[in-house]
Amino acid sequence: MNTLPTLSAIVARFATEGTVTAIEPLGHGLINDTYRVRTEDAGTPDYVLQRINDSIFTDVALLQHNIELVTSHLRRKLEQQGTADLARRVLQLVPTTADGHTYTRDADGNYWRMTVFIAGAVTVETVDTHYSREAGRAFGEFELMLSDLSEPLGVTIPHFHDMEFRLSQLHEAVSRDVAGRAASVADLLAAIDADAERMCQGERLAREGRLPQRICHCDTKVNNMLFDAQTGECLLVIDLDTVMPSLFFSDYGDFLRSAANATREDDADLGNVRFRDDIFKAFTEGYLLTAGQFLTPLETELLPYAAELFPFMQGVRFLWDYLSGDHYWKCQYADHNLDRARNQLRLYQEVCAHETMMKETVAHYAPKK
Q: Which residues does residue 69 pair with via DSSP β-bridges, in sequence order?
């Protein structure tokens, strides 16, 4: 556990302004430990101090270089557009005083970084049509603004949204069967195998040169954005650790997987699993308003497929962890990962049943080129 004197010593390594008066936990992130650093002097900002989880992000130098490239590019684009209130529209990294790097390592081997706290901004957990439309617009704009990034980004988590890789992981877990559970999930394995070839078409199209790599956020949840506390407008996208090259499916499909499920992803009552048309339509409207400016006709056509892909992929991943002995996700009970897998694969079926609606919605909101 980090004590206040320890945190104060880490804060002192960064080029902050003002007198620090308090350091307190901020948010409920599952990956990194985050703190708000309060200052008392007039005109000085507060800060956000964050411990980087280097067990997940093993190359911290690459991770931070990615974020530096992304934030500096976004800042230049916003300046060119004459954006007002620039300080609330893009994250500002705080350098260290020793070497000007955007991260430091303490005596225990922990990596830390700091950004300027954005006043008057909030995160939300609510998934309604307003926030879904704003999320679609903002994530699409994020991709649009990074579509001309000249320097390539590194991959922070290899094979993160690679369906072929996830299926190979599952097949290996079945063959090893270290937890002795494979026979009990034969029905799920058969259902996955029946649709596996179709769900890997993204990788095949990419190999054929028909789908380009995009710069994607790769963790598009509504709480990975900051909204203006007064107007509800999305100010900026945050949590940039997973920003990396990927197929466009990543941002569109991943948001809908979590946001458009009428229940939580570990609800064991599959009767509660329902795909919400209203969330799909709102997010698609916002997304195509911005991302529609750069998506190819094939990418636009495949948006319904992207919505199907992500619950299928997540079901595969949960089942892989269940067969591997529950080492990746925290479980509250013995079959927690199994319930998650069944939930997501039911959601996949629900999404597929709405394919006509999805195609009509995409056709309605897609810009006419």
A: none
Give the lowest-confidence range in 23-27, 99-103, 177-181.
23-27
Identify how many contiguous H helices and E strands the chain contains and give both numbers.
12, 10
CA distances from 76 to 45, 50, 62, 82, 150 (A): 22, 25, 21, 10, 13
Average pLDDT over residues 264-280: 97
Whether 136 and 282 have beta carbons less than 8 Å apart is answered as: yes
Q: Contact, 137 vs 290, CB < 8 A?
A: yes
Residue 164 has which token pair?
């072929």
pLDDT (0 to 100) of residue 138: 95
Mean per-residue pLDDT, 338-354: 98
Please tell me the distance from the alpha carbon of residue 202 to that of residue 7, in angstroms, as a whole number.
45
pLDDT at 31: 56
- Which residues have a Cβ under 8 Å from the Cβ of 55 and sit 6 or more positions away? none
* pLDDT of 125 higher than 90: no
DSSP summary character for residue 67: H
**Are 286 and 140 within 8 A, CB to CB?**
yes
Q: What is the DSSP string of 257-269?
A: HHHSBSS-TT-S-
Note whether 10 and 104 are within 8 A (CB).
yes
105 — pLDDT class (breaks 50, 70, 90): very high
pLDDT at 28 over 80: no
- Half-sphere exposure (CA, 13 Å, Cβ side) for 164? 8
d(CA 271, CA 5) in angstroms, rounded, equals 51
How far, in Å, CA of 336 to CA of 322, rounded? 8
Instruction: Please give the Cα distance from 254 to 246 (Å, whole number).
Output: 12
Measured CA to CA, the distance from residue 136 to residue 260 in angstroms comes to 13
Reported residue count of the chain is: 369
Nearest to 170 by CA among 34, 50, 271, 320: 320
Residues forming beta bridges with residue 52, ordered by sequence position: 111
For residue 153, what is the DSSP state?
P
Bridge-partner residues for 25, per DSSP? 35
DSSP secondary-structure letter at 45?
A: P
Distance CA 302, CA 296 (A): 10
Q: How far apart are CA 36 and CA 20, in angstroms?
A: 10
